[in-house]
């Protein structure tokens, strides 16, 4: 697409993800569609089991339900449009729709990190302070936790997206991406965009800060586990924590790879698009498998669901 004079701003943007594979883009439809359908079905099954089984209405399982909901919400925000573009080459998106999509995707990404932090806190209290669990993990403290992090995530993402609104997109209206990612959109703008890049870094500090506290929590947890006497309870604690650590590694490694990929010029554009898609899709695909297989309580009810075609209430 052609650039515009500095006093003219494009009102529509062109999503040109995998642009160098133009003639092969239709071949990408099938694998992306399979991943999309799998993510919807697998996460929906997990949500259904946790919702229907009253024995799973505990804080940890509610957090698993929440992260499964994100596993559905995030792909829905951009995959259908991407699938259509692969088949029909309809890649235009309005400026307003792009900003809404950006807000939703980055907002959900922040909450994925917040949920992982909540899981780490829950496991820390359950293993390191078991006698005080009901004192710390209760409705009041949960509401305070949710309020603080909802405000934090909302303010940061609103500021990040809001700073883009006054920008003029006069350089070009072509993004080498499948969705409206912050860095890609800002790179199209004219004028001074230093505030926008700073806002993007601040937004990335949310999962980074959460990750530091998550790692610290699990260090304390494993120190407590190693000091405890061996037995079934110790093994169960190890199994539970190792499950969460796998999920955390998948989420944060995907995020870090995507972040670095957009700041290393030597990375090919198509590979940047690929790692960004993996950052958004991989956690939602892996979480149902990890929690469904590794968490005994969920696994038992899932097996009942598939073998009996109903959930034993």
TrEMBL record:
<keyword id="KW-0552">Olfaction</keyword>
<dbReference type="InterPro" id="IPR050402">
    <property type="entry name" value="OR51/52/56-like"/>
</dbReference>
<keyword id="KW-1015">Disulfide bond</keyword>
<dbReference type="InterPro" id="IPR000725">
    <property type="entry name" value="Olfact_rcpt"/>
</dbReference>
<feature type="transmembrane region" description="Helical">
    <location>
        <begin position="28"/>
        <end position="49"/>
    </location>
</feature>
<keyword id="KW-0812">Transmembrane</keyword>
<dbReference type="InterPro" id="IPR017452">
    <property type="entry name" value="GPCR_Rhodpsn_7TM"/>
</dbReference>
<feature type="transmembrane region" description="Helical">
    <location>
        <begin position="197"/>
        <end position="225"/>
    </location>
</feature>
<dbReference type="GO" id="GO:0004984">
    <property type="term" value="F:olfactory receptor activity"/>
</dbReference>
<dbReference type="GO" id="GO:0004930">
    <property type="term" value="F:G protein-coupled receptor activity"/>
</dbReference>
<keyword id="KW-1133">Transmembrane helix</keyword>
<keyword id="KW-0325">Glycoprotein</keyword>
<keyword id="KW-0675">Receptor</keyword>
<keyword id="KW-0297">G-protein coupled receptor</keyword>
<feature type="transmembrane region" description="Helical">
    <location>
        <begin position="273"/>
        <end position="293"/>
    </location>
</feature>
<feature type="transmembrane region" description="Helical">
    <location>
        <begin position="142"/>
        <end position="165"/>
    </location>
</feature>
<dbReference type="InterPro" id="IPR000276">
    <property type="entry name" value="GPCR_Rhodpsn"/>
</dbReference>
<keyword id="KW-0807">Transducer</keyword>
<dbReference type="GO" id="GO:0005886">
    <property type="term" value="C:plasma membrane"/>
</dbReference>
<feature type="transmembrane region" description="Helical">
    <location>
        <begin position="99"/>
        <end position="121"/>
    </location>
</feature>
<keyword id="KW-1003">Cell membrane</keyword>
<keyword id="KW-0716">Sensory transduction</keyword>
<feature type="transmembrane region" description="Helical">
    <location>
        <begin position="237"/>
        <end position="261"/>
    </location>
</feature>
<feature type="transmembrane region" description="Helical">
    <location>
        <begin position="61"/>
        <end position="79"/>
    </location>
</feature>
<dbReference type="Pfam" id="PF13853">
    <property type="entry name" value="7tm_4"/>
</dbReference>
<keyword id="KW-0472">Membrane</keyword>
<feature type="domain" description="G-protein coupled receptors family 1 profile">
    <location>
        <begin position="42"/>
        <end position="291"/>
    </location>
</feature>
<protein>
    <recommendedName>
        <fullName>G-protein coupled receptors family 1 profile domain-containing protein</fullName>
    </recommendedName>
</protein>
């Amino acid at each position: 697409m052609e650039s515009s004079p500095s006093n003219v701003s494009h009102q529509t943007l062109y999503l040109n993800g995998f642009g160098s594979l133009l003639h092969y883009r239709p071949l990408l439809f099938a694998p992306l569609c399979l991943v999309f359908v799998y993510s919807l079905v697998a996460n929906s099954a997990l949500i259904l089991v946790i919702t229907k089984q009253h024995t799973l209405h505990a804080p940890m399982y509610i957090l698993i339900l929440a992260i499964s909901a994100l596993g559905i919400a995030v792909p829905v925000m951009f995959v259908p449009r991407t699938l259509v573009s692969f088949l029909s080459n309809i890649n235009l998106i309005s400026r307003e729709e792009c900003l809404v999509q950006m807000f939703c995707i980055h907002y959900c990404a922040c909450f994925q990190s917040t949920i992982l932090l909540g899981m780490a806190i829950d496991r820390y209290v359950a293993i390191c302070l078991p006698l005080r669990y009901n004192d710390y993990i209760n409705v009041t403290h949960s509401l305070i936790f949710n309020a603080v992090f909802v405000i934090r995530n909302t303010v940061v993402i609103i500021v990040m997206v809001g700073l883009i609104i006054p920008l003029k997109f006069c350089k070009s209206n072509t993004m080498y991406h499948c969705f409206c990612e912050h860095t890609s959109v800002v790179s199209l703008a004219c004028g001074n965009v230093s505030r926008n890049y700073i806002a993007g870094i601040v937004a990335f500090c949310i999962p980074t800060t959460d990750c530091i506290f998550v790692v610290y929590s699990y260090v304390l947890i494993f120190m407590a586990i190693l000091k405890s006497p061996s037995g079934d309870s110790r093994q169960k604690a190890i199994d539970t924590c190792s499950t969460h650590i796998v999920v955390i590694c998948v989420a944060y490694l995907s995020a870090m790879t995507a972040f670095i990929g957009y700041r290393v010029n030597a990375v090919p554009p198509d590979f940047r698009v690929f790692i960004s898609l993996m950052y958004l899709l991989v956690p939602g695909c892996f979480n149902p498998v990890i929690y469904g297989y590794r968490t005994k309580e969920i696994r038992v009810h899932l097996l009942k669901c598939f073998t009996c075609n109903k959930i034993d209430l």
